[in-house]
Amino acid sequence: MLAKVRSIKTETITTPLLVPAFSSRADPYIQTILKFAKPYIVDPILISAYDVYYKRSLKNITCPNAIFLDSGGYECSKRFDISEVYYLKDKPKKWNIKLYGEVLNFWPHNIPTIAICYDYNKKGMSINKQISSAKNFFKGESYFLSDILLKPENKEELAIIEIDSVIKEMDSLRDFDIIGFTEKEIGNSFLDRMTNIAKLRSAMDKADINKPIHIFGSLDPISAPLYFISGADIFDSLTWIRFSYFKGMTIYQNNYAVLKQYLEFKTDRLISQYYVDNINSLKSLQMQMKKYISTGGNFEVFESNSDPIERAYQALKTRIGGEL
């Protein structure tokens, strides 16, 4: 079984982790969302250094037990993720690795923080050079745990990362606490993504590298479990802000109001309610993942999604050609 509980260095943070992301790219009123969600969040969240620098998100957040601090490339670029339903057209402000470094310099050290390497414009760079660049970036940053986000070596717009190129650099990845990829860049289909994750996890197991795999842009009741059973461990996305979770599905927010019988709620009240419900749904899904591990791979823990998840797992076994 590829899915396991894994520790992040200090062993105070363990996987699987479902990480709600906050970004001005999804909603310009990010401070309002953060303040509202604070009482309901105790597990890790992800925020952007870009938003911190331009005071769009809070600097001193005391509610979660850890923070993933993203490098800010997403907010100042036109790239999209699979869950994106619209693009806020605010003109991006100046952003570069120097400004990201300034955020790290004043970042408080009272909360465990996982810093994600500066990945903007890294597409087209060899995996070896990306690893070297990330090592240089994290040099001297002892207060932070390191999360390397690897990009395709091909510069094409829809390029996919060559997982064999990553496997060849396996020994060099030991220096990082977490190894990350975006969902859209690790494969062209669900099965391709699952296969690449499984191949990487198997290679890491053989090399005795028990580090978590982080899939950026995946945080829903179907895709996250699929990547989890394939060997990934950490999942984040803005999906929980853009959509509503309902009975194992990700749905349009207005439909959620009808299905949950919140018919009388005004828009502001509805939005605040589905944020709370979504956070609770993520907690429930995270518990399902832990039960999957503790039961030795019982797909029934995924409830209404158990059949499609098990079918996907069988398809993965067929693709890989053997037991997992």
Explain what the structure shows.
- By secondary structure, the chain is an alpha/beta fold.
- It has one domain (17-320): TIM Barrel.
- The protein has eleven helices and ten strands.
- An eight-stranded parallel β-sheet has the order 1-8-7-6-5-4-3-2.
- Helix 6 packs parallel to helix 7 and helix 6 (190-206) packs across helix 11.
- The longest helix has 28 residues, at 267-294.
- The mean pLDDT is 88.
Report a brief summary of the structure.
By secondary structure, the protein is α/β, with parallel strands linked by helices.
Topology:
Layout: E1 17-20, H1 30-37, E2 45-48, H2 49-53, E3 67-70, H3 97-106, E4 113-116, H4 127-138, E5 144-149, H5 163-168, E6 178-182, H6 190-206, E7 213-216, H7 223-229, E8 234-237, H8 239-242, E9 244-246, E10 249-251, H9 253-259, H10 267-294, H11 306-320
Parallel strand pairs: 1-8, 2-3, 3-4, 4-5, 5-6, 6-7, 7-8
Antiparallel strand pairs: 9-10
Helix pairs in contact: 6-7, 6-11
Number of helices: 11
> Gap between N and C termini, in Å?
5 Å
Estimated radius of gyration: 19 Å
Provide the helix percentage: 25-40%
Number of domains: 1
Task: Write down the CATH topology.
Answer: TIM Barrel
What would the principal axes of the Cα set say about the shape?
globular
Low-confidence stretches: none
Q: Give the CATH architecture.
A: Alpha-Beta Barrel
The biggest sheet, with number of strands, parallel, antiparallel or mixed sense and barrel status, is: 8 strands, parallel
The top level CATH class name: Alpha Beta
CATH level-4 homologous superfamily: Queuine tRNA-ribosyltransferase-like
Order of helices and strands: EHEHEHEHEHEHEHEHEEHHH
How would you state the average pLDDT, rounded? 88
Structural class: alpha/beta
What is the topology, as strand order, of the major beta sheet?
Answer: 1-8-7-6-5-4-3-2
